[in-house]
Amino acid sequence: MGSYIALLEQHRLATEDRVRLSDLKGELFVSGDSLQHPGGDRRVEAFCKKYGRFRPKFHGPVQSLADGFELVANENAVLMLAALASHHSPPGVVILPLADAEVTWKIMVVWRRGRAGGALKALLDALLAMVTPKANETTRLAARARP
Q1: DSSP per residue over the chain, as a string?
Q2: CB atoms within 10 A of CB 14
Q3: Would you state the pLDDT for residue 143?
Q4: Residue ranges per domain, the chain?
Q5: Which pLDDT belongs to residue 132?
Q6: Residue 119 reports pLDDT greater than 90
Q7: String of DSSP letters for 125-142
Q8: Positive or negative, the Cα torsion across 83, 87, 90, 96?
Q9: Assuming Cys at both sites, which of 54, 82, 129, 147 could form a disulfide with 25, CB separation 3.0 to 4.6 Å?
Q10: Would you tell me which CATH number, out of the four given (3.30.70.3040, 3.20.20.80, 3.40.190.10, 3.20.20.380), belongs to the domain 3-97?
């Protein structure tokens, strides 16, 4: 699942179509609570080092996504988000896709054995729809590459 970045509306990059991690060097990144989002800061740090060539500085931690958006709006911090959270539109904040396609998040869904009904089925269908085009493209390219 791809990544997005939340920025203050007045941020120097807020009018861009996409943002590269390397453009965010020197910014303060919102830190998530390690109980709510275990390993999240380490993952952001690894992405910044590998794709942006810098070590991020963190501000926080925050207890919720809403608290993270508050730090973006009030403290001019930046918040890295998985694509599934990109639909939010908090006041004073813009959410832009990261141009670095390799910056992805793994989503794990666990449920009790049996039928998946209602909201769970809708979630699974939506997640499957997001990954199916990529899987189909990979399969198609692999088939073409065979002699």
Answers
A1: --EEEEEETTSTTTTSS-B-GGGGTTPEEEEEPTTTSTTHHHHHHHHIIIIISSPPEEEEEESSHHHHHHHHHHH--BEEEEGGGTT---TTEEEEEBS-TT----------SS---HHHHHHHHHHHHHHHHHHHHHHHHHHHH--
A2: 14
A3: 47
A4: 3-97, 108-147
A5: 61
A6: no
A7: HHHHHHHHHHHHHHHHHH
A8: positive
A9: 54
A10: 3.40.190.10
Sign, Cα dihedral of 141, 3, 88, 36: positive
Of 95-99, 132-136, 137-141, which range is least confident? 137-141
pLDDT score recorded for residue 139: 45
Only one residue has tokens 């963190």, namely 58
Does residue 118 register a pLDDT over 70?
yes
CA 64, 79, 94 angle in degrees (round to 5)? 105
**CA 67 – CA 69 distance, rounded (Å):** 5
Confidence check: pLDDT of 147 > 60: no
Choice between 57 and 121, residue whose per-residue pLDDT is larger? 57
What are the residues facing 58 on neighbouring strands? 29
